[in-house]
Amino acid sequence: MLSATLATAAPAFTASYRIYDQATSTLDSRIFGHFMERPSWHGEIGPEAAVVPGTHKLQPKALKLLKELKPSILRFPSGTDNDYVMWTHG
Predict the structure, then answer these.
(1) Are 36 and 50 in contact (CB under 8 A)?
(2) Does a structural domain hold residue 3?
(3) Can you give the residue range of the structural domain that contains 49?
(4) In a domain, 5, yes or no
């Protein structure tokens, strides 16, 4: 067990926490996922390059790599521009 105490600027308040080397509970795997990055700088290609031209199917190598990740959720589009995507506008 790792234990630490954090003192803030106000001497009357002390925060503490403990980190255990064993799990104390489980998390729903749907909380965590992956996104396919859409870089928007220096002309880099985005995840669209992983799609077979003229189809809506992923290239075999991209599909294999995604399957190896075993994502519970895959978000696309997303990435660095995620804060600027107007999701409600399709």
Answers:
(1) yes
(2) no
(3) 33-85
(4) no
Residue at 22 is within a domain: no
Say if residues 16 and 6 touch (Cβ distance below 8 Å).
yes
12 phi/psi in degrees, rounded to 5: -80, -10
The two structure tokens encoding residue 23: 């799990």
In 1-90, alpha helices (H)? 60-69
CA 1/CA 49 separation, integer angstroms? 46
Rounded to an integer, the average pLDDT of 47-76 is 84
What are the C-alpha distances in Å from 84 to residues 36, 41, 46, 48, 76?
16, 15, 16, 18, 14
For the entire predicted model, the pTM comes to: 0.48
What is the rounded average pLDDT for all residues in the chain? 75
